[in-house]
Specification:
The protein is elongated and about 75 Å long. It has 96 residues and is α+β, with helices and mostly antiparallel strands. It has helices at residues 36-54, 68-81, and strands at 16-19, 23-27, 60-64, 86-90. The chain is built from two helices and four strands. Helix 1 (36-54) packs across helix 2.
Length: 96
């Protein structure tokens, strides 16, 4: 591997090649790989951001039950579009 861009991020990369009898790379960078958990989380954030942007949503409303899954969902949405574009509502039940 001569060049590897960061995972799950838009970026511009410059890779320099030397053209002669064969093509050789003169300059490239290799971004470190994420561990499995970080990679999955960043993929979820990117997918959520892309979904919301492509459907022209201005923000998101997240209903929270009080469980860990609700907290993780809220965290993903906030990291995807920013806290100022997210409204969270506590959904009350006898288990909350």
């Amino acid at each position: 591997v001569i060049h590897q861009a960061p995972l799950y991020q838009e970026c511009l990369s410059l890779v320099e090649f030397e053209l002669s009898d064969s093509i050789t790379c003169k300059k490239g960078t290799i971004e470190p790989l994420l561990d499995e958990t970080a990679s999955i989380y960043q993929a979820l954030v990117m997918g959520t951001r892309d979904y919301l942007q492509k459907n022209h949503f201005e923000g998101a409303i997240v209903g929270l039950s009080g469980g860990i899954d609700s907290a993780l969902t809220l965290s993903i949405v906030v990291d995807a579009i920013g806290a100022d574009k997210v409204e969270a509502f506590m959904l009350s039940s006898r288990y909350t």
